Amino acid sequence: MPRFHLIEFEDQQWFPKNIRNYMTDFLQFVTNQFDLFKGSVPILQKGLEKSGQSQIIDLASGGGGAWLKLIKHLEKSHPNLKVKLTDYYPNHRAFKKIVQQGNGHFDFEKASVNALQVPKNLKGFRTQFLSFHHFKPADAQQILQNAVDNQAVIGIFEAQKRSVAHFIQFFFSPINVLLMTPFIRPFSLGRFLFTYLIPIVPIFVWWDGLVSVLRTYSVAEMEAMTKDLKHGDSFEWEIGEVKNGPVVNLYLLGYPKK
């Protein structure tokens, strides 16, 4: 399928904050409930090893993604691991919930963090989950360039491919929103209102999900990005996909050559 960079509403500055948070809360619930990134755990472990650090700087965290599940996989080999959640539109309520449930592994940045220009005080293995496709090609490449410029190990992870099969799969996402919303905690009257009585959340999840598939970069496109980076040859780049049952994780791992 050709790539189309159509509008995703949750990216827009004017989009209502509460609706954006309900959407990212849903994604956070799904990724943890179904352990969507379990297949990427060995790649995360390698990234930590290459970084030589015990801190992950998670960029464009949304509602916190799959971290509550991932930390259970990683804490066995990295008991002192710290994960700092960041976002351009930080969801403080979701971040605080993860900190409370994270057994001391989590912290978050209160201020807005731009993944294209990560503050120099945020040092660690950089990760992005379900967010790289939000960026246009030039901006996505700048994320990688900023990692190279700062000699920071970076891992990019997606849970969908740009394919007809995945497009059809996401077409039915409103049904999942309706079925899963009662189980999302903490309970929110607003979430129920805008899911069932005024079904704004299912509609926007549906649209943004379909657009996410159309925006997702292929392995070949990510490889092309790395070849055009300034001093990109100073990094090793591992790009591919891993399967976790019916789920496919696309990944990019970049780290400085020895």
What report would you give on this structure?
- The protein has a single domain, classed as Rossmann fold, CATH 3.40.50.
- It is globular.
- The protein has helices at 17-33, 41-51, 67-74, 92-101, 137-149, 164-171, 173-180, 189-197, 200-215, 219-227, and strands at residues 55-59, 82-85, 106-108, 125-129, 154-158, 235-244, 247-256.
- A 7-stranded mixed β-sheet has the order 3-2-1-4-5-7-6, with helices on both faces.
- By secondary structure, the protein is of the alpha/beta class.
What's the SSE blueprint?
Blueprint: H1 17-33, H2 41-51, E1 55-59, H3 67-74, E2 82-85, H4 92-101, E3 106-108, E4 125-129, H5 137-149, E5 154-158, H6 164-171, H7 173-180, H8 189-197, H9 200-215, H10 219-227, E6 235-244, E7 247-256
Parallel strand pairs: 1-2, 1-4, 2-3, 4-5
Antiparallel strand pairs: 5-7, 6-7
Helix pairs in contact: 1-3, 6-9, 7-9
CATH superfamily: Vaccinia Virus protein VP39
Under CATH at level 1, the class stands as Alpha Beta
Give the strand tally: 7
Report the sheet-strand fraction. Answer: 15-25%
* Portion in helices: 40-55%
Order of neighbouring strands in the sheet with most strands: 3-2-1-4-5-7-6
Structurally, how many domains make up the residues? 1
Shape, per Cα inertia axes = globular
Q: What is the chain-wise order of helices and strands? A: HHEHEHEEHEHHHHHEE
Please tally the helical runs, counting DSSP H or I stretches of 4 or more residues: 10
Low-confidence segments? none
Specify the biggest β-sheet. Answer: 7 strands, mixed
Instruction: Assign the structural class, choosing from mainly alpha, mainly beta, alpha/beta, alpha+beta, or little secondary structure.
Output: alpha/beta
Which second-level CATH architecture applies? 3-Layer(aba) Sandwich
In CATH, the topology is named Rossmann fold
N- to C-terminal separation?
37 Å
Using only CA atoms, what is the Rg?
Answer: 17 Å
Mean pLDDT: 95
